[in-house]
Amino acid sequence: MSSTFNLFTTQKQSLQLSLKLWLPLLQAQVQDLEAIFKEHSFDNPFLEYKSSFESNYSSLSTSDNKSSFIENMSLYKESLYDTVLNQLDAPLFPTPSSQKVAHEILQNINSDGYFEGDIEQIAITCNTTNQFVESVRQRFSYLEPSGIGSLDMIESFEFQLSQLFIDDELNLFVQKIIQNLKQIDKYHKHHRFMEATEIVKRFKYPPAIDFQEDSTYIVPDFFVDVGDDISVKINQSYYPDIVIKDPFKTKNSELKDKLKEARDLVNLLELRKSTLYKLVLIIVEKQMGFFVGSELKPMTMAQVADEIGFEESTISRAVSNKYIKCERGMFSLKSFFTNAVSKNLSSAEIKNYIQNLIENENHEEPLTDQDLVDMVMQRYNMQMVRRTITKYRKLLNVPSSKERKKIYKVRD
Questions:
Q1: Residue 85 lies in a domain
Q2: Distance CA 375, CA 373 (A)
Q3: Cβ within 8 Å of residue 60, ≥6 positions away
Q4: For an engineered disulfide with 101, which of 136, 241, 332, 344 has Cβ 3.0 to 4.6 Å away?
């Protein structure tokens, strides 16, 4: 009985160690792998690695290229997606259900930091209620960057205000100003007007602006070439060569744990490669039309998770800050997951169609949102409401028809 219990405890501890190593390794960007293994090698006598950086660095012929390589490498910063993803844990999201909904919400946050998804659709996907989805979205007001997950500028300011420690009177007054920004001057006689406006000025607009201002050096994880045959190649250049040093016989349990950890890291590095490779193969297979010049098809992480045999949250971590380079350019793995508007029609395809219509519209009579609705319904033989088209237009950063007409007059 005792030996069985000890075996179970050992296996459980081993599994916990592997998971602790596995998830960060899977989520890490390819250019960060060397730093991860370098850190492990400092306190593990059995782990030895050869820097991938050295071979990449030596292959660059000129000193200018070398300095450019170093400079570009230093420009990288954590993405908005990763920043938020790392916060989707307890205590704000304590249950599997709340975490699942939070991940779905994250998938529907645009580059400005605003939520652009459909609460009802997320509720259906997660088998819960609209009210629960909305309650989870409201918890995003406690995340960084402040204002993330809000619906618009007003709610973004409200989210940011909720994180400030100010007295009730000032809080209520700032709330009033936020709701009436266009008529802010009418409050100028209020005795706390200057304090309130200084607070509003400090709010970030849009909430993800800090993630848009800095340049980033993107390293592709995979190269996809679609010709007569399909070629999917992993970017081996940034994978360090890992070696297990010759183990010596020892009864020291701590050293045995270090040896096991070293072996686990080697195996998990290979597992990372195979998992991401299988994931990219599925993406390429399901989105083949995109790689030959067509539009993205509806595809969710839940579908891919079922096919690859992982939890949806693991797929979410796996696609985090991973990129494919192909003939059409550089694309994040996350961008290949798009919501379905109908059975075989993605929101990305409709957005691209709207973009093309507007780019080729008559400058004298720009297309209204109702015109766009009618043309979308006619092209795709489906029902759609105007507010959906308006939302898509705003996501494309396209002004209204009246505003575009004014712009055209000045430009033309």
A1: yes
A2: 6
A3: 66, 69
A4: 136
Residues 47 and 93 in one domain: no
Q: Would you say 392 and 354 are in contact if contact means Cβ atoms under 8 Å apart?
A: yes
* pLDDT digit string (tens) for the chain, length 412 residues: 444 334 333 344 444 546 677 888 888 888 888 888 888 778 788 888 776 544 444 444 444 444 444 444 444 456 788 889 889 988 899 998 999 999 999 988 988 899 988 898 899 888 999 999 999 999 999 999 999 999 988 999 999 999 998 999 999 999 998 988 878 878 888 999 889 888 988 898 889 888 875 445 688 999 998 877 888 999 888 888 887 876 665 556 667 778 888 888 888 888 889 999 999 999 988 888 888 777 777 788 888 888 888 888 888 888 888 899 888 888 888 888 876 565 566 677 788 888 889 988 899 899 999 999 888 888 877 777 788 888 888 878 888 888 888 777 776 6
Look at the chain and count its residues.
Answer: 412
In the block, residue with structure tokens 């592997």: 18
User: What gap in Å lies between CA 213 and CA 206, rounded to an integer?
Assistant: 12
| Domain membership of residue 126 as a residue range | 80-211
Is 107 inside any structural domain? yes
Nearest-5° angle of CA 369, CA 373, CA 375? 115
H/E run at residue 332 = strand 329-332
Q: Residue 27 domain-assigned? A: yes
**Same domain flag for 328 and 230:** yes
| Distance linking the first and last C-alpha atoms of the chain | 86
Domain match, 145 and 242 both: no
Is 394 within the bounds of a domain? yes
Asked whether 99 and 314 are in contact (CB, 8 A), the reply is no
Same domain, 285 and 354: no
In single-letter form, the type of residue at position 305 comes to A
Q: What are phi and psi of 243, to 5 degrees?
A: -130, 140
Residue 338 corresponds to which tokens in the numbers above? 């798009």
Cα–Cα distances in Å, from 291 out to 226, 329, 332?
A: 7, 10, 14
Q: Are residues 225 and 205 in the same domain?
A: no
Question: The tokens of 271 are what?
Answer: 């597992």
Number of independent structural domains in the chain = 3
* β-pair partners for 150: 114
